[in-house]
Design a protein that fits this description.
The chain is mainly alpha-helical. The protein is built from eight helices and no strands. The chain has one domain.
Length: 206
């Protein structure tokens, strides 16, 4: 059972926070404020996962649920009364997290190289989605905080994170239009913002 393992909570929080700032580096104070929302989510989420299970206590007390602590601190395990529910949620959740992390890493490699060279990146994962890093972040938070280990904090924070980074993406796109003009407008028209385009890509005119 994870409950009370505060050393592990601190370790995981530090590692995940490092990954956040490694691959989603804030460029200005507004971006730092949005990263702060995710940082608060990370601290609260892993403190509850490995430390004090606030959600379980709240549901047991307020809703009068008879929760068995022998089943662990995962909400799915508590509600369904078997550790198998947690295993299923963990497998599905981590599959979503992995897909999100892949998007973040793929986008980070391309966009940082393009920034150094001062050019617009439209190839690789950027042929399928305009903001792969933010889409990846959404998937990571959803897979870990909604599917794998839902808590009051994660369920409440998820829409806030989505809105915060959607607004940031729109602001970044206005800057891209100012910098690249019609080239970015054309790119924006043919590539989705957050939901990746699946299937074969149509050949581009040269």
């Amino acid at each position: 059972m994870h409950v009370g393992t505060w050393g592990l909570a601190v370790l995981v929080t530090v590692v995940v926070s490092w990954l956040l700032y490694r691959y989603l580096t804030p460029a200005g104070w507004k971006e730092w404020s949005r990263a702060g929302v995710v940082q608060a989510f990370i601290i609260a989420f892993y403190a509850e996962m490995y430390g004090f299970p606030l959600t379980i206590y709240f549901l047991a007390r307020v809703l009068g649920l008879d929760l068995g602590w022998s089943e662990g601190g995962n909400l799915w395990t508590q509600l369904f009364g078997t550790p198998a529910a947690h295993v299923v949620a963990m497998v599905i959740g981590y599959a979503i997290v992995f897909s999100g992390a892949t998007l973040v890493a793929s986008g980070w490699r391309l966009v940082h190289r393009a920034r150094r060279e001062g050019r617009l990146v439209t190839h690789g994962i950027y042929e399928r989605v305009r903001h792969p890093q933010y889409t990846g972040l959404y998937l990571i938070v959803f897979g870990e905080g909604i599917v794998h280990w839902p808590t009051l904090v994660s369920v409440a924070a998820f829409p806030i994170i989505v809105v915060a980074y959607a607004r940031l993406a729109r602001r970044e796109e206005r800057q891209m239009v100012e910098r690249f003009g019609d080239a970015y407008r054309e790119y924006r028209q043919r590539v989705p913002m957050f939901i990746p385009r699946l299937g074969a890509l149509a050949p581009r005119e040269i």
